[in-house]
Amino acid sequence: MNSSGQPPFLPSMHVVDYTIHGDDMQFVEIELDPQEAVVAEAGGMMFMDEGIAMETIFGDGSNANKGFMGALLGAGKRLLTGESLFMTVFMNQGAGKKRVAFGAPYPGKIQPVNLRELGGELIAQKDSFLCAAKGVSISIAFQKRLGAGLFGGEGFIMQRLQGDGLAFVHAGGTLYERVLNPGESLRVDTGCIVAFQPTVDYDIQYVGSVKTAFFGGEGLFFATLRGPGKIWLQSLPFSRLAGRIVAAAPQTGSGGREEGSVLGGLGRMMGGDNR
Questions:
Q1: Multiple choice CATH, 17-240, 3.90.79.10, 3.30.390.10, 3.60.160.10, 3.30.460.10
Q2: Residues 126-164 pLDDT 10s
Q3: Are the C-beta atoms of 82 and 40 separated by less than 8 Å?
Q4: CA separation for the pair 186, 202 (Å, rounded)
Q5: What is the DSSP letter of 227?
Q6: Cβ contact 42:58 at 8 Å
Q7: Contact predicate 109/170, CB 8 Å
C-alpha cells in the first residue's frame, strides 16, 4: 500500500479515458493514448479509429510471465463455462489519441468500475463483462458449492476481474446499486446479479418447494448475497428478455400453428381452421 492507502499502481496497467453515450441503448467510447490498449470479449466492438490494431490473444494477456501452462489452465476454466478461449486486444499503434467503442448487447446500462477504488477485485456475472483496460486480469470465479452451482441457472458462473484499472460491465434494464452491511443478506434471482465486491459472500439455494419451483415461474434456485460489500443488480437479465420474445413471437410449424396468437390452437378451432 502507498501513503494514500491505495494499492500500488501496476506499471502494466493501462490508464484510459472514456465517454458513455446513449440512454437505454448505450455504448462506451474509449480514448487511447499511443500504445494504450483495452481488452474485450469477441463481438463487442462498435467502431475504431484508423491506427488501432486488433489482435486476438489466448487468455486476457494480463500476465505474460505466467507461461503457456498457466495460460492454458485459465483458458480451460473459461472453456468449461461456455466462454471463448480467446479475447481481443485493441491497441493504439498510431500517433496521437485514438478511439474505440464497444456497444451494449441489449437494452440497459454500462457501468464503469474503478478496480483500484474497490480494493483491486470485482466478481462479475459472466455475461456482464464488456471490456477493460489492458492489464486487468479476467478469470473464472467458481462458486464454493459446485454441486449446487451446476444447477444454479444463469448467473452462477462468475468472472473475477483483478487489477487497478477501469473495467466496464453491462446491466440489462435498470441498474440497481446497494451496499450491504455486515451480516445483511439479500435473496436474488441468479440472473439478476451483475457484480459484487469479493467481501460479499454468496451461495446458491434451492427455492424449497417443488410446486413453487415448477409453477412459480421463478426458477429452481436463487442466490443469497450476504454483506459487507457493494452489489450491482439488473432488472432485466437477457435470458428473461429472450424468453419473453420467444414466447410472444408467432411460430408457424408444419401444421400452420401460430403459437404467438392470443388464443393459439383454441382460437383456430373456434374459427373453423381445419388445416
A1: 3.60.160.10
A2: 888 999 999 898 887 765 554 444 444 444 678 889 998
A3: no
A4: 10
A5: S
A6: no
A7: yes
